[in-house]
Amino acid sequence: MARHFLASSLFEGLLRQGKALMGYLPLPDEADVEPILEAAVLRGLRVAVPRVEPGSPSMTARALARGPEGWRVEKGPFGVRQPPPEAAAVPLEEMGVILVPAVAVDEEGYRLGYGKGYYDRFLQEALRLKPVPLFVAVAFQFQVVPELPRAPWDIPCHGLLTEEGLWPLPIPR
Questions:
Q1: What local confidence, expressed as pLDDT, does residue 138 receive?
Q2: Residue 114 · residue 135 · CB < 8 Å
Q3: In Å, what is the CA distance from 172 to each residue of 88, 103, 131, 169?
Q4: CB atoms within 10 A of CB 140
Q5: Can you tell me the distance from the alpha carbon of 116 to that of 123, in angstroms, rounded to the nearest whole number?
Q6: Which residues make Cβ contacts (< 8 Å) with residue 166, sequence separation at least 6?
Q7: pLDDT tens, 112-138?
Q8: 81-106: average pLDDT
Q9: Region 22-40 average pLDDT
Q10: Which tens digit of pLDDT belongs to each residue from 16-29?
Q11: pLDDT class for 169, splitting at 50, 70, 90?
Q12: CB atoms within 10 A of CB 36
């Protein structure tokens, strides 16, 4: 997965424009984007991941930083690793690409998450920006399906990253 993203014009564009990359720290069954985050930090990009305060319905983007023994993170709600409260906020306006984890994603770019709506609300905020950051769904190839049920608040992603490649969405039929 990482080699497809890091060799892409999308990643090169982030480097040229100096835009931030938002990723996520995966749960054990999610596609692992940590090698992408690692490479982005080494290349000088600002990297953010979500932080959720206990009981909050929304997430914020916080800077991901290295410590002597790995990422400076703590366990957040649902057991997700996240930056500590003192980590700097990364404004949506600074982001060029948002990597979005998916339980499933369809050929139109609609994704299924864990059902709490954190990414739905976050991406809705990002849609208000000009230009809008690119939303890239991240999944394993077996999680890509022809069509998923949709709700009015679902937002399609612009791209899809799997272990087989990086593609623009929707996938042509």
A1: 97
A2: no
A3: 40, 22, 24, 8
A4: 16
A5: 13
A6: 4, 5, 8, 10, 136, 159, 160
A7: 988 788 999 999 999 999 999 999 999
A8: 96
A9: 96
A10: 998 999 999 999 99
A11: confident
A12: 23
Over residues 140-147, the mean pLDDT reads: 96
The H or E element containing residue 128 is: none
Tokens of 50: 């979500």
- Give the strand order in the sheet containing 47-52: 59-63, 47-52, 20-22, 95-101, 134-138, 159-162, 165-168
Q: What's the average model confidence in pLDDT over 61-67?
A: 93
Q: How far apart are CA 154 and CA 81, in angstroms?
A: 25
Exposed/middle/buried for residue 8 (C-beta within 10 Å: 0-12, 13-18, 19+): middle
Helix (H) / strand (E) element for 10: namely helix 9-17
Q: Are 124 and 155 in contact (CB under 8 A)?
A: yes
Q: Which domains does the chain have, with CATH numbers?
A: 2-48+91-168 (3.40.50.10420)
Token duo for residue 69: 């023994």
